[in-house]
Amino acid sequence: MLELSILGFLYERPLHGYELKERIQGLSGHVRPVSDGALYPAITRLVKNGLVDSHTEPGAGAAPRRTLSLTDAGRAELLARLRSPKDAEITDGQRFFTLLAFLGLLPGPAEQAAVLRRRKAFLDAPASFFYAEDAPVRAEDEPDPFRRGMLRIARATGTEEKAWLAETLDDLDRRAAASEGASAAPGPDRP
After folding, report:
1. Antiparallel, parallel or unpaired: β 135-136 and 52-57
2. Distance between CA atoms of 182 and 140, rounded to whole angstroms?
3. How many angstroms separate the CA atoms of 171 and 3, rounded?
4. Residues 47-84: pLDDT tens digits?
5. Per the confidence metrics, is the pTM higher than 0.70?
6. What distances in angstroms separate CA 83 from CA 26, 80, 87, 148, one per listed residue?
7. How many degrees, rounded to 5, is the angle at CA 174 between CA 170 and CA 179?
8. Which end of the chain is more exposed for a tag (fewer CB within 10 A), N or C?
9. Where are the beta strands (DSSP E) in 112-184?
10. CA 100, CA 115: separation in Å to the nearest integer?
């Protein structure tokens, strides 16, 4: 997810390494802090693979600053990752939030909806943190108050996310249909 965050933030505009780290920290730092030991090797890999360009600019003070920008190959890679996220990026809540932060960069509502449908299918499958006889334990059946709390919080969050997904999918489907209708409509040169 670190590489996706790097590509996503650089898609918006070139950034200095420190600015990039601050943006990534803002997105997920409270859950998964980003260390220099993880960030800078990831940037180096992306530069080596031709996805990110790195060049030095004069700094505000005496020290020069390294500016990072996305290459055309980096843009294509980001869009490919957004179109076809790994299963863990759909099922893990924090990874999905990172994906969601950049999903709007996909150019079409149908592509965006396809990713959200994967998340909806995951949320619609019966699941729990705890199982009894291979069946998910419901909050109402859990005697431990702390586990019951986990289950209730997860259910409330899941209920709200499902409602948001339904609303957003309806909107994306309408936009996709309108876009298809507009491209199929006869123009001045078409009968």
Report:
1. unpaired
2. 50
3. 29
4. 999 999 999 877 666 677 889 999 999 999 999 999 99
5. yes
6. 24, 5, 12, 36
7. 150
8. C
9. 131-132, 135-136
10. 9
